[in-house]
Amino acid sequence: MAGMKIPVFVSAPTTLSPEQQLAKQLILDELDRLELEPRAIGVSDFATQFPLREVVVLARHCSGGVILGFEQFRVLKGIRKHGTPKQTEVNNVIIFPTEWNQLEAGILFSAGLPLLVFKEPGLAGGIFDLGVSDVFLYEMPKATASDAERKALASVFLKWQAKVREHYYK
Questions:
Q1: Taking the domains of the chain in order of start, what are their residue ranges?
Q2: How far is C-alpha 14 from the chain's CA centre?
Q3: Which long-range contacts (CB under 8 A, 24 or more apart) does 48-55 make?
Q4: CATH number given to 6-169
Q5: Which CB contacts under 8 angstroms, 24+ apart, belong to 31-34?
Q6: Could you tell me the pTM of the whole model?
Q7: Distances in Å between the alpha carbon of 5 and those of 43, 56, 77, 92, 166?
Q8: pLDDT of residue 1
Q9: At residue 87, what are phi and psi to the nearest 5 degrees?
Q10: Which residue, among 46, 69, 147, 47, has the nearest Cα to 115 in the 3D structure?
């Protein structure tokens, strides 16, 4: 089987901090160890005019999806549900991922692909909410992870990749 890797869609921002890049690399190394090929619009595959359409096309050729929820936007204060009876003032930090995480997760989920979702602490909403679906949802690993944390991460990948292989071979 050497040389033949199963394609999996990886949703991640293209601009990352050095710490975020190390966490992403840790995840990509796990994919490589399991003979899974990361595919992404703008990285392994390039979009033409319509990137959303390209995501759908690429998703059809993948057998799993990995969503990497990295902070991309930070708000220090604001108003939630403005102009509604449930309007509230927010006076603490709220972080958001790239909007593409949500779009790509929705496409991958609707394609019936097994999803593995990682999120940085404090990230919430949509695919990053616990119990939103039957996806594997975990905190983003750190490059400084201990041996025990790395073994736990490997275990997470083993469970998920079993579903990826099942999808690929059916």
A1: 6-169
A2: 13
A3: 52/103, 55/9, 55/103, 55/104, 55/107
A4: 3.40.50.450
A5: 31/66, 31/157, 33/154, 33/157, 34/157, 34/158, 34/161
A6: 0.90
A7: 17, 20, 45, 44, 14
A8: 45
A9: -60, 135
A10: 69
75-110 pLDDT, tens digit per residue, is 999 999 999 999 999 999 999 999 999 999 999 999
Amino acid (1-letter code) at residue 103: L
Pair of tokens at residue 74: 């930070």
Residue 142: both structure tokens together: 């750190």
**What DSSP assignment string belongs to the chain?**
-TT--EEEEEE--S---HHHHHHHHHHHHHHHHTTEEEE-BTTTB---S-HHHHHHHHHHT-S-EEEEE---EEESSEEESTTSTT-EEE-S-EEE--HHHHHHHHHHHHTT--EEEEE-TTB-SGGGSTTSSS-EEEEPPPTT--HHHHHHHHHHHHHHHHHHHHHHH-
* C-alpha–C-alpha distance, residues 55 and 73, integer Å: 23
